[in-house]
Design brief:
By secondary structure, this protein is an all-alpha fold. The protein is built from 17 helices and two strands.
Length: 449
């Protein structure tokens, strides 16, 4: 207990880190609530609709996620850099002009992409997934691409504005809306497609609410005499496109398992894998919460030349991630099988080994710290793009080899190897660039300064 108190005091007494710590607490609370709600929705799906319905929902979500990556065009990440940069260098009005320009672009691209996907949904379901009965769900999801894209953009813009309480709300909103709708549909109008319908409706609501929140947040702070730097769209895209490549390759690393399982294995196995991914993601609560505050803070410190403070904040963030992640990791490794069986049903214990691989990969991700955000916010987005490209290609090739023979375990092992390679390389790159890096693993007495 004294050792725990000493660790706690180190974090709470550090004024330079206080903004990250306070913001992360709100973000973590939102993330925990959102995950509990999402897991509850998953439990209802598996218990009332079965593993196949869970697999279909996972494939529809992957379909939307893949589409939104290309419709958001990397601006979901670049806006984390551009909003704080414009506020510091110019004004809140200047930041709003950039946000609005990006918003219009995303809507236009999303509408075109959604129309194309709607008309090609039958081809995708039949020729790519060999599951023609999914064409209706893909066509329906195509109509919600614009909402998915706007929801993602506005959620990141809220982070850029450092509206952390609002961000916590934005995290909870889609999961809460889906759960309420799913319960109502299950009780009133039972239908095998209810989980998908509830998910799509929740996305629509989140997009509309998020757009209203961002417009209101900007206009409350804008002044008529604000200095405005008109940033050309070409300049915005020169920053965003490398981040698009990063996001698309990160998708390949995180979601290729679901897509290839959907192509080679039955929906039931996709459902098992989807559950293992959800449970393994519990280990990165702290990482995602801290990233909420870390990314815009990294941008601010870098663009004001405060490099020592930047590394101080980055290192301390990683330490906090480690101490909050390790207990969850140990619980899942020791009790993962009974947890899966108790929560989702005995058949889902088949997902235990794949969950173990994913947990180990996420642990390396956590102890490495916010490497991706650090590189994106400090002008190294092209280097990050290159390593993620290599990682993604390797992951796809390894998955193509392993999944047909080993199923969900092959998908999870490929994801684990990719996470480890990506994070170790990123740490080495930061070390080479600055002479110090942000990893933290005290169990091996490894503390890179």
């Amino acid at each position: 207990m004294p050792a725990f108190s000493k660790i706690t005091q180190r974090f709470t007494s550090d004024r330079k880190f206080s903004e990250i710590l306070t913001g992360s607490a709100f973000a973590l609370g939102g993330r925990v609530a959102a995950t509990i709600l999402a897991l509850t929705a998953s439990i209802i799906t598996t218990r009332f609709y079965g593993a196949e319905a869970m697999g279909i929902l996972a494939m529809v979500n992957s379909f939307l996620l893949l589409a939104s990556i290309f419709t958001v065009l990397g601006t979901g990440t670049s806006i984390l850099r551009l909003i704080p940069e414009h506020i510091v260098k110019h004004s809140i009005t200047s930041a709003f002009r950039v946000y609005r320009k990006i918003q219009y672009l995303v809507v236009a691209v999303s509408l075109v992409c959604g129309i194309l996907l709607f008309f090609s949904s039958g081809l995708l379901a039949d020729k790519v997934f060999s599951k023609p009965h999914l064409s209706f769900f893909f066509a329906l999801a195509a109509g919600f691409v614009v909402f998915k894209s706007l929801a993602d953009l506005n959620t990141q813009a809220v982070r850029g504005m450092r509206l952390i309480r609002v961000f916590a709300f934005m995290q909870v909103l889609p999961s809460a809306t889906m759960l309420v709708l799913l319960i109502a549909m299950t009780l009133l109008i039972p239908n095998p497609g209810n989980p998908v319908y509830a998910q799509l409706a929740a996305l629509g609501g989140t997009a509309v609410v998020g757009a209203w929140i961002m417009d209101r947040a900007f206009r409350k702070k804008m002044r008529p005499d604000d200095a405005v730097h008109l940033m050309p769209l070409k300049e915005v895209m020169s920053i965003s496109l490398p981040m698009l490549m990063t996001a698309s390759m990160a998708f390949a690393i995180g979601q290729i398992g679901v897509i290839l399982l959907g192509m080679f294995r039955p929906e039931r196995e996709v459902g098992y894998y989807s559950v293992s991914v959800k449970v393994a993601s519990l280990t990165i609560f702290a990482l995602e919460a801290i990233n909420t505050m870390a990314a815009p803070k990294f941008s601010e410190l870098f663009h004001t030349g405060k490099m020592d403070e930047l590394f101080h904040v980055a290192r301390k963030s990683t330490r906090l991630i480690f101490w909050t992640t390790t207990p969850i990791l140990l619980v899942l490794l020791v009790l993962g099988k009974p947890i899966l069986g108790f929560i989702f049903g005995d058949e889902f214990t088949a997902a235990y080994l794949s969950m173990v691989f994913l947990v180990l990969g996420q642990f390396v991700n956590a102890v490495s710290g916010s490497t991706g955000h650090f590189m994106n916010m400090t002008g190294h987005q092209n280097a990050l793009k290159n390593v993620i490209l290599v990682t993604a290609i390797s992951n796809v090739l390894l998955s193509l080899i392993l999944i047909p023979y080993f199923g969900i375990e092959g998908a999870a092992f490929s994801a684990m190897v990719s996470q480890i390679f990506l994070n170790v390389y990123a740490l080495m790159y930061i070390k080479k660039s600055y002479g110090k890096t942000i990893g933290y693993l005290p169990l091996l007495r490894w503390r890179v300064r």
